[in-house]
Amino acid sequence: MEVKVELNGPIREQEVIALYRSNRWSSADKPEQLMSALRGSHTLVTARVGGELVGLGNAISDGSLVVYYPHLLVHPDHQGKGVGRKIVEVMQRVYGGFHQQMLTADGKAIEFYKAVGFERAGKTEPMWVYSGNEH
Question: Is residue 92 helix, strand or coil?
Fold first, then answer.
């Protein structure tokens, strides 16, 4: 399986929504806002197998000091095959020298992010105002 990872490549609404639905992410229910958010990201990384979108990650950043990774998801059929790791590697090429890289992880994602170098942020506690329903 050859995974093609691309920085700031094109995305189509139908394929993005299918990917988000396959992971049961509630943002799939807001396609207009989701597409606007992804297209407006500082960085968007896509992963494709045979042209099919199987993963993506995005970053919001001030471009110099701080980056936040709101989304990184891989189609369930392709999880555990290195796709997410490849997306993180591309992000690290862009943001590896930044002072602060932040994300929020839960469930199985916690162990994945630890494996690619992230750790709990001191004594911090994640907080949010959230309108989704998958947690």
Answer: helix
Q: pLDDT tens digits, residue range 8-37? A: 999 999 999 999 999 999 999 999 999 999
Contact 109, 87 (CB under 8 A): no
47-81 exposure pattern, b = at least 16 Cβ within 10 A, e = fewer: bbbeeebbbbbbbbbeeeeebebebbbbbeebbee
What secondary structure letter does DSSP report for 8? Answer: S
What whole-number distance in Å separates Cα of residue 36 and Cα of residue 39? 5
In 3D, which of 115, 32, 20 has the Cα closest to residue 70?
A: 20
Do 39 and 11 touch, CB atoms closer than 8 A? yes
Contacts of 75 (CB under 8 A, 6+ apart): 19, 22, 23, 53, 54, 55
Reference 77, options 44, 50, 45, 104; nearest CA is: 50
